[in-house]
DNA sequence: ACAAATTTAGACACTCTTGTCCATTTCGTC
DNA sequence: GACGAAATGGACAAGAGTGTCTAAATTTGT
């Protein structure tokens, strides 16, 4: 291993390509077939790689599985935080902006490939790998919920919303935005753009009926003053 | 089969007991291990029955699985409809009554053994048995959602709520009532009574902020007069 | 073009699971 | 107590999947 000197971190190039295609194929197959139902030959075929290569890269089936869950968790979290950073802190049109945010969250984090796969794996194997998914729970909901809640708290503080408990409101916001996608999610389907938009629109409207200020920002300039009830 | 005359429908007694204990054990194991991960010996052991008995009763693994899904679907549906029939059509205290209803729905239909198992099986195997779960979709959400929506429509018509689209409102009601149980559901856990009550309380409060009449029933005496449903 | 590393295909041993068969025992009923 | 139906346990063949090993082919960096 004398070449460790200059390239240091970078293993061969094609090597990395194989690694990625193994991970891709494996998440696909594990999701479709469940851990027990998946087999290595299937993954190898789908990855366009020989079985031995998978063993070279990951050791065994279980290690491969763990690697995939970690990978998905990481990627999904990154996506969620990226999307949270687009939260409308200074909304021009509160309803439209929140709907757009809800749609982004759904499309980029929940309905996309990674989101769908991670959800499925958690549901399917969550009970069998408590420690692994405890990790997910901490990194995922444990960090993303509070981040969203903080954004809503800020929005309320700025006078755009009338919220008692931002944590509750944040969870309800997401629940409402996804209310009409539940059955599709259950069966492992992917809702199309229209469905996502519909659900988000209905959800945000209800959310604003519950938490919106009575008079929109346009008429009263200083709504922040007396607002609390 | 000469004894078919008087008992007619009733097969032997102990026979039926075995059947039940096989179904119980099998749902347990299929849920815990997924279809592919479950094995017949495990089920036999858990049922306190020999493997051969399972084959005598159900033919093969897949038939057993199908029988279980149908059984769970049926039982869950019955529970949901029974609970829907307790919907508060003439609420004394709208908030309290809706909270109690939401709690009943959760405890009796969603968080109980059957509900948990059916949900898990749908999530886990839904993609692999499209026809089987299409059946569930028709019998389940296809019939229960409209039934709940009809109840909300009636409540709105009677002047207790201000609802545009009862179908949307019904889905949002359930989404809100379960908003705080999502993570627990994901990981296959069973929320305790307090969690269910908390989530229902928060959810119903938000629901009523969105859809409740501005002035509570107390002040205006005759909202019931114009009601017809 | 060379040398090292990686990939490949195939064979292999091993284990686990399904579903069947059968002789024996137990159970429920009369 | 006797009869028939059902349950039992254990053996069994067949198949599938995991993980290892090997020699040959291919790719990669220099």
From TrEMBL, chains A, B:
<feature type="DNA-binding region" description="H-T-H motif">
    <location>
        <begin position="39"/>
        <end position="58"/>
    </location>
</feature>
<feature type="domain" description="HTH tetR-type">
    <location>
        <begin position="16"/>
        <end position="76"/>
    </location>
</feature>
<dbReference type="InterPro" id="IPR009057">
    <property type="entry name" value="Homeodomain-like_sf"/>
</dbReference>
<dbReference type="Pfam" id="PF00440">
    <property type="entry name" value="TetR_N"/>
</dbReference>
<dbReference type="GO" id="GO:0003700">
    <property type="term" value="F:DNA-binding transcription factor activity"/>
</dbReference>
<dbReference type="GO" id="GO:0000976">
    <property type="term" value="F:transcription cis-regulatory region binding"/>
</dbReference>
<keyword id="KW-0805">Transcription regulation</keyword>
<keyword id="KW-0804">Transcription</keyword>
<dbReference type="InterPro" id="IPR001647">
    <property type="entry name" value="HTH_TetR"/>
</dbReference>
<keyword id="KW-0238">DNA-binding</keyword>
<dbReference type="Pfam" id="PF14246">
    <property type="entry name" value="TetR_C_7"/>
</dbReference>
<protein>
    <submittedName>
        <fullName>Transcriptional regulator, TetR family</fullName>
    </submittedName>
</protein>
<dbReference type="InterPro" id="IPR039536">
    <property type="entry name" value="TetR_C_Proteobacteria"/>
</dbReference>
<dbReference type="InterPro" id="IPR050109">
    <property type="entry name" value="HTH-type_TetR-like_transc_reg"/>
</dbReference>
């Amino acid at each position: 291993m004398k070449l460790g000197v200059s390239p240091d971190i970078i293993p061969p190039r094609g090597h990395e390509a194989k690694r990625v295609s193994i991970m891709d194929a494996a998440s696909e197959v594990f999701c479709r077939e469940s851990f027990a139902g998946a087999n290595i030959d299937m993954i190898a075929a789908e990855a366009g790689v020989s079985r031995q290569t998978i063993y070279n890269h990951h050791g065994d089936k279980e290690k491969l599985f763990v690697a995939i869950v970690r990978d998905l968790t990481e990627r999904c979290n990154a996506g969620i935080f990226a999307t949270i950073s687009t939260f409308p802190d200074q909304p021009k049109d509160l309803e439209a902006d929140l709907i757009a945010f809800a749609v982004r969250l759904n499309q980029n984090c929940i309905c996309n490939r990674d989101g769908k796969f991670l959800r499925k794996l958690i549901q399917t194997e969550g009970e069998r790998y408590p420690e692994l998914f405890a990790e997910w729970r901490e990194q995922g909901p444990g960090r993303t919920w509070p981040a969203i809640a903080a954004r809503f708290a800020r929005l309320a503080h700025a006078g755009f919303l009338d919220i008692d408990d931002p944590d509750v409101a944040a969870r309800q916001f997401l629940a409402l935005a996804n209310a009409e996608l539940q059955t599709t999610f259950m069966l492992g389907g992917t809702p199309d753009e229209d469905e996502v938009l519909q659900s988000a629109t209905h959800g945000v409207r209800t959310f604003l009926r519950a938490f919106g200020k009575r008079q929109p920002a346009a008429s009263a300039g200083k709504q922040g003053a007396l607002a609390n009830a």
